[in-house]
């Protein structure tokens, strides 16, 4: 379907993906599961990178019940551990030297102050830093396939503030939604920053952003459980239950970003009416100061992960 068609984009517009490989983080629940389900149904080999083995087994059964021929590869991934991210990336690269779609989908929302295995603020560590490192390692395989990195952000990026070089973990200034907003703005700036660096270096890979809108998934349930029934977390859970889109509809923006043949690097896909509706291209806002924010994010992320993310070097395809 043409990018500018008046017809709404649906799952039926996903092209035949036989021979293509997709890696999805958090593929065992919510939007990640629906993304895996749709890509597998279209013929893609789907790498389900997720944390809970039991939940992942159930997700695999759910997909194969609908698509018996589904090509699924399960790789354990805990984004709260840099060691786990590195191990998962090594496993994925050994099995899949070319990756057509990397969907950075997994995330936490509005949880109490906590730390990752490496001592990072949990939401920043899981939502951004884990994906930053994973993308760093997998980019050669994405470039080899002339593929796409799709980073999932949120409207909450509007409440986020630039990462503080001196205090990226918000020590002494933590708030569940402040930290979530910072992590989602980091996702937003990472997707744009990666796009800019790919273009500058002439890389064959692409970077796109997606926002799922308000979707009724286990993300809200986990937030309520993690806070012991926090009032704002309960509010969003009830709102999602009553007015949110289904996970399958909420996954459409990231599915379109990952598969639409007319999509281009640097584009941002989100529901037509901000939090609901079919996926459309949305404008990139908050450009004032964005370049500096992206520089700071890259500097902090490289320092905390302990690895440089040189897009030019990482875009060199495997075996070249």
How many strands in all?
8
Order of helices and strands: EHEHEHEHEHEHHHHEEHH
Q: Helical element count?
A: 11
Please give the radius of gyration in angstroms.
18 Å
Q: Report the top-level CATH class.
A: Alpha Beta
CATH architecture: 3-Layer(aba) Sandwich
Separation of termini? 34 Å
Helicity level: 40-55%
Q: Number of folding domains?
A: 1
- Structural class estimated from helices and strands: alpha/beta
Largest sheet: 8 strands, mixed
Q: State the low-pLDDT regions, or none.
A: 220-224, 233-240
Strand order of the largest sheet: 3-2-1-4-5-6-7-8
In CATH, the topology is named Rossmann fold
- Choose one word for the global shape: globular
Q: Describe it for me?
A:
- With 320 residues, this protein is an alpha/beta fold.
- It is built from 11 helices and 8 strands.
- It has one domain (17-314): NAD(P)-binding Rossmann-like Domain (Rossmann fold, 3-Layer(aba) Sandwich), CATH 3.40.50.720.
- It is 45% helix and 12% strand.
- It has an 8-stranded mixed sheet, with helices on both faces.
- The longest helix is centred in the middle third of the chain and has 26 residues, at 176-201.
- The model is unreliable at 220-224 and 233-240 (pLDDT under 50).
Short description:
With 320 residues, this protein is an alpha/beta fold.
How would you describe this structure in keywords?
alpha/beta, Rossmann fold, eight-stranded mixed β-sheet, 45% helix, globular
Topology of helices and strands:
Layout: E1 21-25, H1 30-41, E2 45-50, H2 53-66, E3 71-76, H3 82-95, E4 101-104, H4 122-144, E5 148-152, H5 176-201, E6 206-210, H6 218-226, H7 231-243, H8 247-250, H9 252-259, E7 268-271, E8 279-282, H10 290-305, H11 311-314
Parallel strand pairs: 1-2, 1-4, 2-3, 4-5, 5-6, 6-7
Antiparallel strand pairs: 7-8
């Amino acid at each position: 379907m043409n990018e500018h068609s008046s017809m709404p984009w649906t799952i039926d517009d996903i092209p035949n993906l036989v021979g293509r490989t997709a890696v999805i983080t958090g593929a065992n629940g919510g939007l990640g599961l629906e993304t895996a389900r749709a890509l597998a149904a279209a013929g893609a080999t789907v790498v389900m990178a997720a944390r809970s083995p039991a939940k992942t087994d159930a997700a695999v059964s759910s997909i194969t019940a609908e698509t018996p021929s589904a090509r699924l590869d399960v790789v354990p991934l805990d984004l709260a551990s840099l060691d786990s991210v590195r191990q998962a990336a090594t496993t994925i690269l050994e099995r899949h030297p070319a990756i057509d779609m990397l969907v950075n989908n997994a995330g936490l929302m509005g949880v109490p102050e906590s730390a990752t295995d490496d001592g990072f603020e949990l939401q920043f560590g899981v939502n951004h830093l884990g994906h930053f490192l994973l993308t760093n390692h997998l980019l050669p395989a994405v470039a080899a396939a002339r593929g796409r990195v799709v980073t999932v952000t949120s409207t909450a990026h509007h409440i986020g503030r630039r990462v503080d070089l001196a205090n990226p973990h918000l020590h002494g200034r933590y708030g569940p939604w402040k930290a979530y907003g910072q992590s989602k703005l980091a996702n937003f700036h990472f997707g744009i920053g990666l796009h800019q660096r790919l273009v500058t270096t002439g890389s064959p890979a692409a970077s796109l952003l997606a926002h799922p809108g308000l979707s009724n998934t286990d993300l809200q349930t986990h937030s309520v459980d993690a806070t012991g029934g926090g009032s704002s977390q309960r509010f969003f859970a009830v709102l999602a239950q009553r007015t949110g889109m289904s996970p399958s509809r909420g996954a459409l923006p990231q599915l379109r970003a990952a598969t639409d043949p007319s999509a281009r690097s640097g584009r941002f896909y989100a529901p037509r009416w901000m939090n609901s509706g079919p996926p459309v291209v949305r404008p990139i806002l908050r450009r004032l100061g964005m370049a500096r924010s992206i520089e700071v994010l890259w500097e902090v992320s490289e320092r905390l992960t302990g690895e440089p993310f040189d897009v030019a070097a990482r875009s060199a395809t495997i075996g070249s």
